[in-house]
Backbone:
């Protein structure tokens, strides 16, 4: 599968899939995530409140945009964090703060498509990304 490049690309594909294929799409998105070095998978990068382990690590390459590395020990959860990252990846901290991440994810209706165990950590993933962006938005 060629990785969709935007959240809109994924949403268009997702809308036409049945439940099993939606799972496969999320798993494929997770597989396409940039590798996160094990050394970055620490307590400091662990997202709290997720049933699976999820790590998110922000980097700020030249140009001031935020680039996130992420991983999970569960395939579906890794796909969910990949979906979240499609809404914010490589944007400026100010743009991330202004992004309606929940609104971008709403058409996927993840809480109805997936078990509560798989979706309970999504708000915490979003909060961690938003807190990072808010902190960095005030820095040069």
Residues:
């Amino acid at each position: 599968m060629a990785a969709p490049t935007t959240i809109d690309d994924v949403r268009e594909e997702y809308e036409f899939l049945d439940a099993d294929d939606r799972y496969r799409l999320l798993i494929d998105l997770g597989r396409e995530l940039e590798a996160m070095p094990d050394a970055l998978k620490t307590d400091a990068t662990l997202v709290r409140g997720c049933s699976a382990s999820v790590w998110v690590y922000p980097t700020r390459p030249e140009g001031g945009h935020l680039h996130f590395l992420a991983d999970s020990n569960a395939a579906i959860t890794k796909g969910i964090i990949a979906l979240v990252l499609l809404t914010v990846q490589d944007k400026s901290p100010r743009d991330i703060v202004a992004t309606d991440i929940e609104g971008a994810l709403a058409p996927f209706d993840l809480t109805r498509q997936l078990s509560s165990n798989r979706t309970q950590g999504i708000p915490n993933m979003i909060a961690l990304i938003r807190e990072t962006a808010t902190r960095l938005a005030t820095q040069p």
Q: What stands out?
A: The first strand starts at residue 54 and ends at 59.
